[in-house]
Amino acid sequence: MSKRPSADFIEILSESGVPVTEDEFETQLKQEVVGAGSKISNDSDMSPFWRWVRAAVVTPCVWLIRTLLAGHVMPNMFVATAQRWALELKAWEYEIEPKDAEKTRGNITLTKANAADAVTIDTGKVVQTLPIDGVVYQIRVLAETVIDAGQLTGKVLVEALEAGAAYNLPAGYFNIIPEEIPGIVDAVNEPDWITKLGANAESDDELALRVQNAFTSSGEWHIDDVYRSIIATVAGIRSDNIYFNNTGDTNPGTAEALILMEVGTTPQPVLDQLNEHIMDNGHHGHGDVLTCKAIPDTEHEVIAEVVLIANLAEQTKVNELLEVEDRIRAVFRETAAYPDMTRAKPQSRFSFSLLGSEIHTNMEQVESVRFTVDGSVQEDIISNLDQPRLTSLIVRELEYA
Q1: pLDDT for residue 217 is more than 70
Q2: What is the phi/psi pair of residue 365, to 5°?
Q3: Which helix (H) or strand (E) holds 158?
Q4: Dihedral (C-alpha) 206, 210, 212, 218: value to the nearest 10 degrees?
Q5: pLDDT tens digits for range 19-42
Q6: Can you give the pTM of this predicted structure?
């Protein structure tokens, strides 16, 4: 996530010559009094007059400078430092609506015990994941669905129990039926199972990025920022996760918008909706051909060899190795777990030494971890317009030496 810059407005005012402490303000006030021709006969700390001046003038004025001006007015003048209320006012000026939280919706594939039977799936039946960082994600059937006789499998429309991008999980994660569904023996979310992205409520930083983008998208020409603004209105797509590849392959102006998800891959139904909105509904520039695509993937085989501290119980070892695996999978955007871990992303260098350091920082019982990447020991991944993904991940213990 691109971070908004911060500013120390008290320091900025101080460097500009504005008194920001009571001592500074009192010194300047005394200089102004003397400069006006008045003589101060008693300026000691115990002077009744100056005690009154401090209480009635100095303290309130310093509060106005430090609290009101530097702490409230100045920060909310700028998108980079504004609080939520000010961001929403600025967003309104550009017809930007803050995005609400949304629930993931899609299709789960169910397998019947007997293909010859017709099976009815009741509304509200639940499919879930194994625990991910201690959280079990559940989705429920939205409407009563019949899988006809003669079909071994069928798809049912489901929705996440709660809103959030964490439910946009890749294929294979939703595979547990916690309570029996009569006639059903298996469930799984297949590739491109999502029809509507789940999303967290838009954070201050995300809204600020969209407002910032509005400044550069206000021209008449459909440059990258205009398309970025259009695409980022979709819940679950962040403006800093949209990349452009100006190919020129079909016609002058031809381009690709490559979209990255915080969790999982970009669903094809969402891309189809975006392409229809931009190209078929007239939201493109004159002569432009823009195609929204999922960011291309690069595939990597990763082996993590872990040395744990001595004398751990066997179950503790299992749990530690599972956590290492979950952290690595989160880093490659399979889940939203462990947000403290640095994610792999396009146009960057992904450092396995940093990954190892973050594992050490958060897991006291891991003494050492060594990575083998695509057959080489601890190779960094250099990304262009592509997203690193795992094709295989092996996490194994090395015996304590």
Answers
A1: no
A2: -90, 5
A3: strand 153-160
A4: 180
A5: 999 888 888 887 877 777 777 666
A6: 0.80
